[in-house]
Write a structure and sequence with these properties.
There is one protein chain. The protein has about 325 residues and is an alpha/beta fold. The chain has three domains: about 1-45, lambda repressor-like DNA-binding domains (434 Repressor (Amino-terminal Domain)), CATH 1.10.260.40; about 55-155 and about 285-310, Response regulator (Rossmann fold, 3-Layer(aba) Sandwich), CATH 3.40.50; about 160-280, 3-Layer(aba) Sandwich (Rossmann fold), CATH 3.40.50.2300. Helices cover about 45% and strands about 10% of the residues. It has twelve helices and ten strands.
């Protein structure tokens, strides 16, 4: 830092102010310091800074290693949001999320002097392991689960709210013969979407067909749709967009028109879902807002101001895969 101060012709304190984005630095002075930093290839010594400030500016993130859309996207936006907030991240993957494994991960984070930990918990195994492990820093769970006494703060996109939006949309179009292809039975997102879907239909006195078990994949969606060809419903709610893609593929192969013969909805708004054939009606999850809010909650906890955050609201995106129900005689499905 002293070399930067010498080249820029300013004091050591001025360089420190520029590095910490202090507002009371004249623009021309800031520019000189930044030019000197670039010329010298200066990089801040984070370890030395931590000794002086007693802050590491590091956040630990635990992921299950899942490559599915939700967990993978959450990890990416968390890293971006942490950097925007002035933090670096240390990522650990819990492929076998036992309490012992989580304790080891938390211990490794403590060795790095992390200021807080975010656990991406798609299912109960990860959440239970995080609950059982002890940490001496604030912990935030990203999970579509119900908070229990003693739990750390929990944050997620409102999965149930998104499913209710889809149910209302289909009911509003006049659909009554409905079926849901679920996500994995042990995933919080899948459980929340399924339960809210059924609750919303029950509130409208609509009795759907029995759920078809799924696993987030297009292959399962294709197979499930093939089983519906002999007795088409009004509409299919696929638990995610990949499952919906398989449904659309099977219907296209069989000459079933979407939405003229059957409507199809998904969930996630994955990249390219607006170019499915036809473009898919789905629910968009605002992962950017989730990442920003997660960091705000964690930083508040680090500063001794714990919060109980509200879920991030989803958005219904109506496209060409939904329309009014077809007029046709139907055999009973119950």
């Amino acid at each position: 830092m002293s070399d930067v101060a010498r080249v820029a012709g300013v004091s050591h304190q001025t360089v420190s102010r520029v590095l910490n984005d202090h507002p009371h630095v004249r623009p021309e002075t800031r520019e000189k310091v930044l030019d000197a930093i670039s010329e010298l290839g200066y990089r801040r010594n984070s370890a030395a800074r931590a000794l002086v400030t007693q802050r590491s500016a590091i956040v630990g993130i635990v992921t299950s290693g899942s490559l599915h859309f939700g967990p993978a996207t959450t990890l990416a936006v968390l890293e971006q949001s942490a950097r925007s907030a002035g933090y670096f991240v240390s990522v650990a993957t819990a492929t076998d999320p036992t309490p012992e494994a989580m304790t080891d991960i938390f211990g490794s984070f403590m060795d790095q002097s992390v200021e807080g930990i975010v656990v991406i918990a798609p299912d109960e195994r990860v959440a239970a392991a995080a609950r059982a492990a002890s940490a001496h820093v604030p912990v935030l769970l990203l999970a579509a689960m119900t908070s229990a006494p003693g739990d750390p703060p929990i944050l997620s996109v409102d999965q149930a709210g998104g499913a209710r939006l889809l149910a209302r949309h289909l009911i509003g179009l006049g659909h009554r013969d409905l079926v849901h292809i679920t996500g994995p039975a042990d995933w919080f997102d899948a459980i929340s979407r399924r339960d809210a879907w059924h609750a919303e239909l029950a509130a409208a006195s609509v009795v759907p067909r029995a759920d078809i078990p799924g696993d987030w994949t297009a292959a399962t969606g294709y197979q499930a749709a093939q089983g519906l060809l002999g007795n088409l419903p009004d509409a299919v709610f696929a638990a995610n967009d990949q499952t919906a893609l398989g449904v659309l593929h099977a219907f296209a192969d069989a000459g079933v028109r979407v939405p003229e013969d059957v409507s199809v909805v998904g969930y996630d708004d994955v990249e390219g879902s607006d170019h499915f054939i036809p473009p898919l009606t789905t629910v968009r999850q605002d992962f950017g807002a989730l990442g920003r809010q997660a960091m705000e909650v964690l930083i508040s906890a680090v500063q001794g101001e714990p919060a109980r955050p509200a879920p991030v609201p989803p958005e219904l995106l109506v496209r060409s895969s939904t329309g009014p129900p077809a007029e046709r005689a139907r055999p009973a499905h119950r």
